[in-house]
Design brief:
Elements: E1 30-38, E2 44-52, E3 57-61, H1 74-79, E4 83-87, H2 100-117, E5 121-127, H3 129-141, E6 170-174, H4 180-187, H5 225-263, H6 266-273, E7 277-279, H7 309-312, E8 322-324, H8 325-332, H9 341-344, E9 352-357, H10 365-374, E10 380-385, H11 401-416
Parallel strand pairs: 3-4, 3-5, 5-6, 6-9, 9-10
Antiparallel strand pairs: 1-2, 2-4, 7-8
Length: 419
Amino acid sequence: MTRPGDAPAIEGRLGAGRYAEGAGPAVGGVVTSVHELTTVDGAQVTGVLRVPSGARTVVTLMHPRQDVTNHALVPYLLATGHAVWTQGSRSPNNDLNLLHEQAILDFAAGHAYLRERGFDHVVVLGHSGGATLAAFYCQQAALAPGARLATAPSGRPVALNDATMPLPDGAVYLAPHPGQGALLQRVIDPSVTDENDPLSVDPSLDPFAVANGFVEAPSPTAYSSGFVAAYREAQAARVRRIDAAAAALVAEGRAANRAFKRSGDAGERRRALAPRIVTVYRTDADLRNVDLSLDPNARPYGSLFGRRPDLTNYGLVGFGRMSTAEAWMSTWSVNTTNADFLRCAPGVTVPTLLLEFTGDQASFPSDIAAFSGALGAADLTVDAVPGTHFGRPLTEDAPSGNELASQVIEKWLTPRFPT
């Protein structure tokens, strides 16, 4: 039975309202095809190509961790006459061993295919973590072979210098967060005292302790500046501790591999092959998700993972929760990753649209200001539309953020890259 004042049943779920609903406009006359591609290092990836009649410009989307085949912007882009390519990775929806240096090889295979198809223009559209992936791709693609990265942060060789990496004609960055490593440092709970115990806590750093200023949800909290400073310093320290553990695991695996090459011993080979997994508890604890006065915008209370970070922080979902040590170094450590939006931005020189959602819970006004100052494009447009990180409307009767974003994207695309 529902009592007066109760929220609808769907809102009772912790993760309710995370993603935008609705399929966008219906579009007819679109030819859809699925393609399997082989990357330069031999991985198999797939992509879905949707082509309205006569389309000469294609917009390509990819995310390092998620399948974007049915991204909310696809029907809006098709409705304006642009073709859309949604790129898959070598391990879709599984980031256990996500190396960004390999992910951009996957992206490169799609870009090369689209050039072979003969489109007049290829424009990359990166949303959220896909924006950092796209910036990383643009940065590396702009370099001549031989000047690109030769290894991942773990030392694993990567074939970027052997890859065909066509530079896109333009780039759209929608709600870009700063990169998965920088994002994780923001959301990681520094009060964890034992990496093997998900319930361990240092009370002085507990973000959800009343003694530290937390106010029970959904009332916004107002932390003291002293607590915020200590908290952020402790977040960085926890990441450094995990960095050290990951580096030790990588060194252990590489030593076993060297021993196998010397001896040929099967036991050493087993030691080299054994997965070295980094488990990170409690990664939904960005103070800004409950203290709306920090880096203020129009965001609602709550995080990307739900309306109660004080609860979801202890749950299964979250960033960087489980990965190989190599993936930690490539993707989740702000200190070792190459996929950092701010560091990649100067290498992005193609015409660029940087588009903010004004109620974003992961990309904040200070981020957009920093990104706009760092991007290397001479043709740079910075704009904003109402919406949350995944494009939901800010109010019940408002158009979705994705619908509003599509209008800005179309206005930017058409003069530069006609359909």
